[in-house]
Amino acid sequence: MRNLFIRRPVFSAVISIVIVLLGLFSVTRLAVESYPPLTPPEIQVQAVYPGATAQDVADAVAAPIEQQLSGMEGLLYFKSANSSDGVMNLSVYFDVSRNPDLAAVDVQNQIARAQPQLPQEVVRNGIVVQKRQTAFLVVLALSSADPRYDTEYLNNYAKIYIDDELKRLPGVGDASTFGQLDFSMLLSLDPDHMAQLGLTVSDVAAAVQEQNATNPAGRIGREPAPPGTQLTIPVITSGRLKEASDFERIIVRGRPDGSLVHLSDIGEARLGARNYDLAGRFDGAPTALTPVFLRPGANALQVKQEVVTRMTELAKNFPPGVRWSIAFDTTPYVTASINEVVKTLFEALLLVTLVVFVFLQSWRATLIPVVAVPVSITGAFFGMQVLGFSVNLLTLFGLVLAIGIVVDDAIVVIENVERIMAEDRVPPAVAADRAMRQVSRALISIVLVLCSVFIPVAFLGGITGLMYKQFAITIAVSVVLSGIVALTLTPALCAVLLRPVPEGATAVAESGPVAKAFNRFFGRFNRGFRAVTERYLGAAGRVIDRPRTFFAAFAVAVALLLVLVRSVPTGFIPSEDKGYFGMLVELPDNASRQRTEAVVKQVEGFLLKQPAINHVVSLVGLNFIQNANQTNAAIMFVMLKPWDDRTTSRDQFATVLGGVNGFLFQLQQTRGFAFNLPEIIGLGTTAGLELNLQDRGVNDITRFAGLTGQFAGDANALPELRGVYPTIRVNTPQLFVQVDREKVKALGISLSELFQTLQASLSTLYINDFNRYGKTYRVQAEAQSRFRQTPEDIGRLYVRGPNQQMVPVSALTRTEFRAGPSVITRFNGFTSSLVVGAPAPGKSSGEMLAAVERLAQDKYASRGVGYAYSGQSYQERASGGQGGLVFALGLVMVFLVLAAQYESWTIPFAVLLGVPFGTLGALFGVWLRGMANDVYVQIGLIVVVGLAAKNAILIVEFANELRAQGRSIREAALEAGRERLRPILMTSFAFILGVTPLLTSSGAGAASRHSIGTGVFFGMLVATLVGVFFIPLFFVAIRSLSERGLVRPGAQGAIPQPTPVAVEGD
User: Fold this and answer.
1) What CATH class has 579-676?
2) Which of 348, 563, 1032, 1048 could form a disulfide with 973 if both were Cys (CB 3.0 to 4.6 A apart)?
């Protein structure tokens, strides 16, 4: 009976139409992002120890907490930054498979265990544990030219009226305005007046706690009440204070004469900010900056539009003169890179169509395999939605490569149909039926083999496993759909669209100059192809007749492959021009924020004059690299102009970055560097080296800092690195206050009161809270600024003795300047120093890491210095063995599928032996273009394995059938090569030309496209041009060995066993 789908073409068409409709329905609901959620869950812990030094925070806060963290499920590493402003920022990282909510609960539980060991002031200030959103979407700027609306006002306006509105938008993970300029009731005290009145900070704190409190009084007439009670009336008392004037009327003490001492007698109250150490700027002007983070799986472009729409609505209620703008935006890169891939996708489709047309020489025949492309590609979107994928660079790369793959099955069918029509002179429907009987098994084998290569990748773990999964499963879905199309729609279209070509007819039947030109071209092409086929058969025959020579050549190819595996440098993700970069600016230790801001203004002036730069965002007072607040540091984010506007060499990313670094190098008393941000936002702080040197035996932070500096110097001298930068600094001038404890106790003075006086005067003392604008804010005490300008001011502070006498602090202490760290970082429980850097030009990240490891192990391990990676460097090292595992897994799965298909343990080797040629070509191309064997190259190798096996299957499958019909092994191999050469070349060159745009593309994301395109282009080129000569040899050798009885009898299953034919030697 004739094939069902040939008899029912409408039914065949309906299957494909349903696939397309499902895909179109799904594509509108898929998230759009540059990468899927790949960053490890990060739980951030923040604790504040007011007035403490960096060493105090590290010893009293960080160490007790970190001791409880090890052993949690899925923990990768943790690191903390402990700064001299009393703040500990601890980041805990988990495996990407860990649920972030459960990870946060685990961290919270461990902190609860450490809480009894923490200072009470730390517990009272609160320990914040939260999931940190890492997917930056945009940073909004709120600014005004009106001096009434300063940064403090704008910051609080954003926190009150904007942050929560944005957090409620669908797809927004978080939105929180930078800095701690939240309103605070600042009680600025005059230590001189307090001493004259015999008052201390403790007196003020006690008075505020007593008189600024919520005092519920109950209700009159509440139950149980006497019978006949008619009313229940709430009783209201004065509660928390609201205005500064209310706080100034607080009674601190009553005098014996009946007069009162109010807070206004010893200071003033004013509505200020909680902390002034951090300031935001946008394009050179003070600004409130609000970062908006993307929720995992959300559509970046859609969420940005939601943010813009909501901000436009909120702006209608802004005070006059207040405006908002987008200061930093990651979506242009998402849009541009995806548009470039989509453009490449259409270019690939045109080139594939051209190749198919040249080989098939008929628009009717060309239409049939080309129809498979939209059906398979569009249908893949449905599979992506079912599997929870998004439209991102990885899935789109999969679709680009799939274009050259999905036409293969249809080409195999139509080429066989046309051959049968020409040779047997039968109608298209009969030819289609016969062709399907011949190639159906081969089609199923190809689909199974390709799926067996791609699908197992989904079970790999880690970030690289997720990257492989998104790419490979997308192709696998497309391949399955193309197989369905080839088995259903393609034979039906062949029966309907193809027309018998009379003997001697030209390829293009129409008349006219264009038709004649096509006929001449096709005539020459066909004659040339017949000549190539004959020469191929002659060469293949000679290869078969000289097995020792060519197996030796095969061994040489494998040896070259092993050499390339060892010599091609490794990498992780190629560095891209994302349209923005980061900068760190550091002044000498202890430089004030005002001084730092002056330098930042100078840098902003330089940047905004550069033709390639669009906007500059600055955060003064933040060391982004160390995740610590430092008044002498600033982080800057620079937005470049669109890629189409940066066409000259001076406007290219590397040139701009180099120019900025050159300018920073010339600044006096300033060190800084510009750096590319990680390719996956949230995967570390820079796109280069992140090495944490650890004190594992030095036991002295000054000596450890010296060794760190030596390490950076040695690393900078290595040819693999540049710009190596250690972050540890231990020469920060610090004023050490030595308390004479014996004298303090002899005078009956409380040590806690002495230290509280120091804290409240030189830092701030958190007393309690007040309410305003529907929010809760802090009440804080501090000394007036004129009493904390110089070291001598410490002596002007007073504490009270047991006889009510006021004792100057200078009588109880002595001061001296010492050098110490302004920030102490810890990594996995050890004091550490983060070392950042970048690969030298022409060197890969893998070479950089290898050089750093050699240096650390050979020269510093014996001196008590250990090392550990974080960020992108950690992930690169963690993924080191994944590429080889993926490749080996693909080969094993191909072998098992073919063994099951052929019921043979030997025939699969005839297919697999052709794979090394593709791998050799891929790595040779990568080496030739000076690229690294990164994740994208390894992803491409998976494709090469599948397609090289597919080419071999076409020959081996047909040769097996011919052998079963009684042909000799040599004759079967050569005849299979003759009959399958045209579809092999057609499908291979369709794929090769289809990926050519990846090699030559430019613009956003070009480095990734070059990486994946280079591997698959050269891999398939070599696998096709060399493999077609060796596959017949492999088939003859393996089949001959099998039939000679070197393999266990019965291994060939039901395949008939003709008389063995010997393989001639040289």
Assistant:
1) alpha beta
2) 1032
